[in-house]
Amino acid sequence: MQASILKPALAALALAASAPLHATTTEARSQRGAEVIRTLNNGQEQPTLEAMRREFPFLAQATEAYALGDVWSRPGLDNRTRQLAAVAAMAALGHTGMMRVHAQYALNIGVSEDELKEVIYMITVPAGFPRAIGASQVLGQLFEERRAAAGK
After folding, report:
1. Residue 93 to residue 116: CA distance in whole angstroms
2. How many CA atoms lie within 13 A of 125 on its CB side?
3. 47-66 pLDDT, tens digit each
4. Burial, 117: exposed, middle or buried (Cβ in 10 Å; 0-12, 13-18, 19+)?
5. pLDDT band for position 29 (cuts 50, 70, 90)
6. Biggest alpha carbon distance in the chain?
7. Rounded to an integer, what distance in angstroms lies between the CA atom of residue 18 and that of residue 20?
8. pLDDT at site 62
């Protein structure tokens, strides 16, 4: 009976011992999250996160430490794949404001406009045309703004 209890406990302990060491303090996790933002946002702070930090500091800290510091910085996917997945998920859910943020990051790290368009075409199947059309409008505005800023 005790052996059956010990086996799962030992397996969990072995798994924990073999897992990569992650920062355990909120400050260290937040620093890792801030580095993710700098990488994706051309070395700049993220305006939405900074505005949230002023009005909703706990939500900003949780976003930076957990979403960015823990989840976004995990090994297994590169930033390009993460951004394409985030754009698709946000577009499919109809969260075009957050989709725009992630599309901007995607463009910053080398994803092309055509690739982002393909993601939007793909979401017509699981999410429907209304969500894809809404996402296409937001992406079109982002593309125009970036072209104007670049003088194209």
Report:
1. 16
2. 5
3. 989 999 999 999 999 999 99
4. middle
5. very high
6. 73
7. 7
8. 93
